[in-house]
Each structure stands twice: as C-alpha cells, then as structure tokens.
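We recall that each integer encodes one residue's backbone shape. We quote one record:
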Amino acid sequence: MLDLLFSGILGRYPRLRFVSVESGVGWIQSWLEAADWQFVNSETRREHPEYDLLPSEYFKRQIYGCFWFECKGLESALDHPNDAVRNAARAALERIHASAAPAPRPPRVRLQRR
C-alpha cells in the first residue's frame, strides 16, 4: 500500500480506484498518520513536486477498505480519551449501522392457479 501511495500512480490516474480486501480497517488511521508524517518530515514534496496531496488525501480519494470483524474495536474507541478518536469512531459506527440496515421485505404476491 505504501508503494502505491508513494509511487505517483494515484496522482497520475485520479479516477483509478483500489480496494483493500480482507485486511480490516483498524490499522488505516494510524498507518495514514505515519505516512503523512513521513511525507512531510522527509520533504518528499521537494523531491516530488508532482505530488499534490498528502498520502492520506490520496487514500481518501481513491482507496477503499472493508472489514467484517472490527465493530467491537470501534465500540471500544468510544471510550477513548481523545475527542477526535471518539468522534471518528462514533461517525464510523453510525455509517456502518446505516448501511447495514435490513433490506425492506419484498411485497407478498398471491399466486393463483389456473
């Protein structure tokens, strides 16, 4: 993933999308924070002025993640002392619950014999 973020591909092809499958999402926030720190503090923009965005911004624009087991981790983040972490966890859980709402029941059809 770092190779992808720092390769310049996402900047050259802004409509190209990627999905990280079966890797969870709990690691993404801290990982992107570290990538942004490295980008800024190693002066990557000086070496690559064509990089218009931070790694986290490219990720947000073009990369998706999926999960299937991490709701408990998000729920535990609601008790985190940092307001930003709590708010992000709350927003993520709200999006998860809204998107996971049960589908409406299909209308019942009465079949008639001929």
Observations:
- The helical segments are 2-6, 9-12, 28-41, 44-47, 55-62, 71-77, 83-99.
